[in-house]
Amino acid sequence: MSHTDGSDRWPACAGEIAELIRNFGPDSTPLGPPQQWPRALRNAIDLMLRSGAQMALLWGPEYIVFYNDEHARSIGRRHPANLGRPAVDRAPEIMGVLVCSFERVRRGETVTGCDMPFVFHRDHGDEHLFFDFSASPVLDDAGQTGGVLCVMSETTRRVRASQAVAASEGMAREKEEQLQMAQAAGGIGVFSLHIDIDTLSVSSEFCHIFGVPVREVFPVSVIDRLLVNPGDRMPGRQSRVDGTVPLEMEYQIRRADDGAVRWISRRAELVRDGAGKPVLMRGVVQDITDRKQAEATLRQSEARFRALARQMPNQVWTAAADGRLDWVSESMWAYAGRSHAQLLGDGWTDIVHPDDLARAERLWAQSVATGIPYINEGRLRRHDGEWRWHLVRAHPLEIDGDIDAPMRWIGINTDIDEQKAAQDRLAHSIVETTQDRDRLWQLSADIMLMVDIRGRIVAVNPAWQALLGWSQAQLLGKRFLRLLHPGDVAPTVAELRRLEDGQMHSRIENRLRHLDGSYRTLSWTAVPDAHLLHAVGRDVTALRESEARLRQSQKMEAIGQLTGGIAHDFNNLLQGITGPIELMRRRVALGRTEGLERYMDAAAQSARRAASLIQRLLAFSRRQTLDPKPMNVNELIASMGELLRRTLGEHVRLRIAPDAATGAAFGDAAQLESAILNLAINARDAMPQGGELRIGTAAVLVDETDARRLDLRPGHYCTISVTDTGIGMTPEVLAKAFDPFFTTKPIGQGTGLGLSMVYGFTQQSRGLVQIQSQLGVGTSVTLYLPRAPASEPAAVANPPSASPIPQGQGEVVLVVEDDPAVRLLVLDVLDGMGYRTLYVHDGASAIPILRSTARIDLLVSDVGLPGLNGRQVAEIARGLRPELPVLFMTGYAKHVRTRAEFLGPGMQMIPKPFEIDDFARLVQQALRGEGASAS
């Protein structure tokens, strides 16, 4: 058996970069071997390697690159190839940005930069990052500028957050413009026609009008196919777009969904580029079918209407465009006490109140000029001399379909005097209510505000200055979002969008900046109206701080309970290990070897119990390494039947009630078996006088409502329910059931980690565990696990069959393990199996061996190594030796949650502590190239 290891040289510090420099040869860098480097360079490198900030040193006129471990993580796959090489050759795009700055530094200046953009090449592609940096000169041994020292701080997250806010504001402005256009057209469909690409961007109302599926963008040809007259198509690349394009027009379509023929009114404007070429037509569309039908109906029924008007209680009249009446109904001249002839022409002006006549004539002229209906309120004199309020309305008419004929109008006068009196009473009441509201606005201790659709503050009450220090003058016109804590902007915008989508009120909690720069936590109630958002905010800063202190206190209490439980159980287990070992050592020293087996068995049993305790702790903390696969839940429970019956004993009846529709769950079968067994043992102990244990399964669908209530993702789940008829739990015990090391069993009869392990397993499996209990009735525990797709085969894993320890044929195994005891064990086992071994204590030391021409048939590596972890070592090894098999050992690694995500082809894993036979079997499988395993 052969072993290799390294020795310490300069730099005399830990870290990957230090190790790489120590291993530099004469040709690794143009500067030659490290022993010949200038002392100034070596001192600068020592300073840089011990720094926790990102630093890089560029030495000499060739800008030879050195950097520390912090910077190595930022430059991606350029590391370690860039180390000790000229930057001009290795990073030309970065040097192109910074070379001018570096030349200034070489002249003795210090250069700084803020949010500088750089491109780094990652395995998944180029990544754009931003940095603040400072570049300073480093003097060489002769006192001249020998290099440039750069200190960097990544600001990518801040820059991207600023960019996201700017983009969000841009989108808000665009939505605001569309909303204003829609409001100008009566809230109808909005469109933007991109002429160069024949593409429409539309609102949902536009899609509803044309009967097409709701989407934001589609080709203009979709609309052109719906035109009754193809000549009405929208302009595009294939048609001439200039001042002759009708921007306001009416045309007919045949709706896409039901084939109905509808009239559409379009109003638009052209947007041109700098050369005057139209590039965009934007505007609104409106379904005017009802208006068109009404106009046709009016034309067809004018004659009949005149006859009917004589019998109507309202006053009906017709007039020419100049406002002169040519006919009035009998009810009108009877109301006025005038003859028919007296009211014709301009005679009607004699019954209009003198104060209302000018307004009536002005509105009439506007209606005639625009063609819109005439609507006015004014006072008319009744035959008894009383002035009464009337609503006067008139519509234009075409004569016999001849659009060139003079416009005619038909009008009607309706007495609204009583309604006007009621309106006056209501207005007086509103004035009083407004005064009460203003008093509340001024006196409220809660802050109140109104915000317009642009997010700008329109009004605030005096409580703002008392609570946050801002005066009304400082706040009016200011964007509300700029007062928010940066971490609360996105959630607040999401709530505001829900209000825009029609939610009538909402509760929002966020932090607002005080004038002095501190923040206060506010709980808001917000209600939108047509143009403004009204909100009332209550200061809950003290309440939230109190809740945080309470949570911290509860957390510390839980940590104390957890550490106390671990100490208690581990002391017992360690005593069961160290005691037998000490007794065996004494007997061996006395030459007495008889009966040592019982001490070895006792120590091994305590070690297994310790391993089980660790697994339960990892399960509770959701850090165990799972092997999730589709598994048939019903078959798994059925296979446990005999084991469960033996565990429960004769006094407990076992009833398994599977639902055939349950299907397959996605999870770790071994962990599910352990969870069910734990629940069964708890149920047995809760039924000391006997009873029944029922294990049932079902398939459930968790919808959006249930998902929010259960804190689950919506979707399909398999449930496993374990129900007993035992003594049940009190509400106090039920509240602590999942707490680690909490147990109601006597001392020595339970660790208190059973339910904690079940909780951690379901949480890590993206599921849920619920517990219901009633004192004297029993307890039911239900596990939710994600349901596997029906297309994936499900099976219950069978344990591997036992076989003799395999022997090697002199293959070479490279072992990377930082724990000396584990390393010694593994090397001795491999040596006893007939393998030759090499070993190193960390990942960085393994790289030179992997790069050498030495024979290596298998890499065995711990996952949690200092510096480079085991997975990174394996990736480097695969880059140098593509076919090299890998076997990982892991006690706990925070990145190893599921083995399928962690392992690549030709990789296997074994958890610590492991059986020697299992380790030998996996070594043999790896050397035979049997592929990834999750043993």
UniProtKB/TrEMBL annotation:
**Keyword Transferase applies:** yes
EC nos: 2.7.13.3
Give the signal peptide, or none.
none
Q: Where is the PAC domain?
A: 247-300, 374-428
Spell out the CDD domains in the cross-references.
Answer: PAS
Q: Which SMART domains does this entry report, sorted A to Z?
A: HATPase_c (SM00387), HisKA (SM00388), PAC (SM00086), PAS (SM00091), REC (SM00448)
* Catalytic reaction annotation: ATP + protein L-histidine = ADP + protein N-phospho-L-histidine
PANTHER family in the cross-refs: PAC DOMAIN-CONTAINING PROTEIN, PHYTOCHROME-LIKE PROTEIN CPH1
Q: What name does UniProt use for this protein?
A: histidine kinase
